[in-house]
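Lecture notes, unit on binding sites. The following record was shown on slide 14. It pairs a sequence with fe (ii) ion.
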Amino acid sequence: MRFGPDPTHTIAHLSDPHLLADGKRLGGVVEVAEHLRRTVQQLERTGRAVDAMVFTGDLTDLGEPDAYRELRKIVLPSADRLECEVIWVMGNHDERGPYSQHLFDGPDTDDPQDRVYDLQGLRVIALDSTVTGYHHGGLDEEQLRWLADELATPAEHGTLLAMHHPPIPSVVDLMNLLGLDNRDAFADVIAGSDVRGVLAGHFHYSCHGTFAGVPVSVAAASCYSLDAGAPNRSLVGVDGRQGFDLVDIYPDSLLHTQIPLGSPPVVSGFDDAVADALAALPAHERREAFSSKSSTWTPPAY
Ligand SMILES: [Fe+2]
Ligand SMILES: [Fe+2]
């Protein structure tokens, strides 16, 4: 049993794997494929049931076909084991043609790669915020018209937008040069709609904000991180602090939990036996046993 309320849906929000062909290291240093493998392993280790893995862009570093093939090779077996959907999103390091061809068996195209998914009544819209030939982002008029049209019909559990460029500023100031353009028109489209949250990437560190009254959550990258605490005006990448988010959706709220990679020393904890023993108690005794400062309760196995 769970002691807390059950969410209606749970999503694993992963971002920025930046894979390269032939297992190459990013910048000759970062083991991007290995880091992505560790990220999906960490997700599976949680034992949580998820409805979808959502990857908010920069799936590859250079848009190489072999990098998209490698991505599928790492992610799809994990998605099969989790029995969940995989939702890809374009990032500025991706290329629309290879993205369409090698992830969707689609045409070689430069059209925006926008797609709509229905997760048992929760709508997830993968929005392509890339601008061909640039690293900053934007949504063109046709995309905004399409989005307004889609949002005109509310979904049973509301909508999450998944996009690469966050519609919020960055504390790493140089990243603001690579931010999302045309935000006012975007805000007009989502204001008053059933959009409950925006999932984004691109910053390579975890942060949260609001945009047009909607919560925005940026997931850390799986490849390397930007050091948001580095001296102002600098842009410092570090091979650490990778992670992903679990997003639990409740009828009236969203819960974003960052799961960092790595295994720091364990200094305390309880195992399943404690949870099982608490679950076996009547509800009123459970609270007393686990919460009371004067509790003398000890689980049978201890
Ligand atoms: Fe990135
Ligand atoms: Fe990016």
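Take-home: Residues 65-82 form the longest helix (18 residues).
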